[in-house]
């Protein structure tokens, strides 16, 4: 369509210029945000339905850009991934999350599992194993209570190095989960050749599970195959009681989603742990 008008091309190029400038500004802001500690770790509860119990939390990063303005990760994770800043940010998130959850479980005497997201770039970082070990030592966080989440795509794109890295992490007692499971078209049998402990069913399947027979069948298949292969399973994006019953009937008791709680800042998580879920 840009060839239809004489001025079409110029308009397009100006737009591109604006986008590139905006991108550069964002990168620059993110560089400062890392230095000025504008990031904050939120925690979303993970719930065991059959035991009616909070079992753990997933750490999710937020950017407090200006007074009261919280930027969601979709807006900046892709940028810090492209610049490589995710390596430093990811390390910071892991340290903060271990520190805060360790503090919380000592203070309240409640054991909590902690899940932290790992990006592909962190996988390429040769010092990852060393950094994780160091953070666990510094924060006194028990390795068996830490779970690292890796997406199916990252795993498949870096199969050889991933196998090695994951092996070393799992030797430290750390658990490994495949995030956004079901979106990457890889076979569960193949994925099971990695030292994986848990599958996290992608929330896109949950959205339609009550209206879409295909999605319902996919969720049911993932749950039963995980069981066959001896893997744990957790569903994310659980928003309604219908979804809770559907999952629970299929034997998936571990759940995470807005029906239990949104991701919470540390102080609100503390309240949630003390009060419990209604
Ligand atoms: P994710 O790892 O799949 O995280 C789950 C996302 O689903 C979170 O979005 C969470 O707030 C949202 N969510 C939770 N319950 C529900 C629900 O019931 N319904 C719906 N519709 N959504 C729900 P969030 O916090 O915006 O994070 C988005 C993505 O950003 C994450 O997806 C993850 O890929 C990335 N991310 C966040 N923090 C980090 C981090 O520290 N490191 C890395 N590498 N990536 C991160
Ligand atoms: Ca995740
Ligand atoms: Ca996910
Ligand atoms: Ca995702």
Automatic annotation (TrEMBL):
Domain EAL: 23-277
Domain of life, source organism: Bacteria
UniProt protein name: Diguanylate cyclase/phosphodiesterase with PAS/PAC sensor(S)
Organism: Desulfuromonas acetoxidans (strain DSM 684 / 11070)
Shown chain mapped onto the complete sequence: 355 to 632 of 635
């Amino acid at each position: 369509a840009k060839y239809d008008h004489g001025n079409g091309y110029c308009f397009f190029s100006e737009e591109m210029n604006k986008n590139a400038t905006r991108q550069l500004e964002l990168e620059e802001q993110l560089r400062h945000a890392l230095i000025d500690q504008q990031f904050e770790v939120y925690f979303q509860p993970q719930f065991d339905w059959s035991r009616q119990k909070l079992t753990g939390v997933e750490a999710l990063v937020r950017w407090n850009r200006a007074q009261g303005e919280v930027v969601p990760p979709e807006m900046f994770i892709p940028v810090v991934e492209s610049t490589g800043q995710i390596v430093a940010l990811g390390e910071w998130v892991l340290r903060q999350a271990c520190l805060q959850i360790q503090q919380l479980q000592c203070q309240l005497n409640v054991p909590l599992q902690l899940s932290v997201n790992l990006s592909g770039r962190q996988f390429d970082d040769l010092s990852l194993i060393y950094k994780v070990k160091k953070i666990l030592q510094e924060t006194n966080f028990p390795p068996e209570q830490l779970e690292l989440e890796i997406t199916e795509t990252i795993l498949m794109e870096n199969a050889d190095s991933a196998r090695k890295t994951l092996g070393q992490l799992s030797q430290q007692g750390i658990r490994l989960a495949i995030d956004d499971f079901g979106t990457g078209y890889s076979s569960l049998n193949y994925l099971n050749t990695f030292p994986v402990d848990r599958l996290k069913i992608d929330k896109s399947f949950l959205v339609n599970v009550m209206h879409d027979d295909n999605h319902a069948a996919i969720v049911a298949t993932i749950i039963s195959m995980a069981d066959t292969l001896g893997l744990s399973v957790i569903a994310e994006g659980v928003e309604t009681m219908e979804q809770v019953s559907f999952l629970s009937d299929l034997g998936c008791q571990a759940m995470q989603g807005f029906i239990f709680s949104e991701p919470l800042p540390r102080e609100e998580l503390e309240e949630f742990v003390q009060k419990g879920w209604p």
